[in-house]
Write a structure and sequence with these properties.
alpha/beta; eight-stranded mixed sheet; two-stranded antiparallel sheet
């Protein structure tokens, strides 16, 4: 029997220890980025908020406390092991292009949802590359790009009275090692679970689903999330 035959397949629920990783959040002064920074820092993660303006980032970090630091985007990217992209869609490409060098070799987690809004409500946009995550991968050829954290309510993330956020996080990427890291980061937040949901080519429908959740929230005055059953 070969050594390969002796090796049992890896349990998909066996995730790495990510407690020592530094997480940077580009767009960390916006609602979604700020909420993610708060929840990860509350869970004990070292977090750096990035912004185009360093003073704005430092001010937001001081308001959050919990050891969160603020820095200009380039410094945030350089100092972080994992970088979450939570910038507005209209600034997505420009931000990443400017940080290509600083993001070289980094695990970049894109949570941007390309959406449009009109009198009928939110609707999905489809970037030329297929999705925001695929655009990030095209712009950052020397980074490892994953996609996650799309379906989280910024209101719940920032609400200090909410102790648990009961939702699953769909995680997409090309490397199991990388998606495992992102799943583990999601799992550090009480009530949250990271679930592998395919490769980056499947990111468009995950990003687009946010338009449906916005419709749910408006109709039911809720902060809806997702749960994947039987996993």
């Amino acid at each position: 029997m070969t050594s390969t035959e002796n090796t049992a397949p890896k349990d998909p629920r066996d995730l790495p220890d990510v407690s020592g990783l530094v997480v940077g959040v580009l767009g960390g002064t916006g609602d979604q980025g700020r909420g993610l920074a708060y929840r990860l820092a509350l869970a004990g993660q070292k977090v750096i908020i990035g912004s185009r303006a360093a003073d704005r980032a430092r001010s937001a970090a001081a308001e959050l406390g919990l050891g969160v630091e603020g820095a200009e985007n380039a410094e945030c990217a350089r100092r972080s092991d994992v970088v979450i992209v939570a910038v507005p869609w209209d600034g997505h490409a420009k931000t990443l292009e400017a940080l290509r060098e600083e993001l070289t070799g980094k695990l970049v987690v894109d949570c941007v949802n390309p959406l449009g809004f009109d009198k009928k409500g939110a609707y999905a946009l489809k970037p030329e590359e297929g999705s925001a995550a695929e655009q990030a991968a095209a712009l950052l050829p020397d980074s490892r790009v994953a996609a996650a954290f799309h379906h989280l309510s910024a209101v719940l993330l920032q609400d200090a009275s909410v102790e648990r956020i009961d939702t699953d996080v769909m995680v997409l990427g090309e490397s199991r090692a990388d998606t495992d890291i992102v799943q583990a980061l999601a799992g550090r937040i009480p009530g949250m679970r990271g679930v592998f949901a395919g490769r980056l080519r499947n990111a468009h429908q995950v990003e687009s689903l946010v338009a449906n959740l916005i419709s749910v929230n408006r109709r039911y005055k809720a902060h809806a999330g997702l749960r994947v059953t039987d996993v």
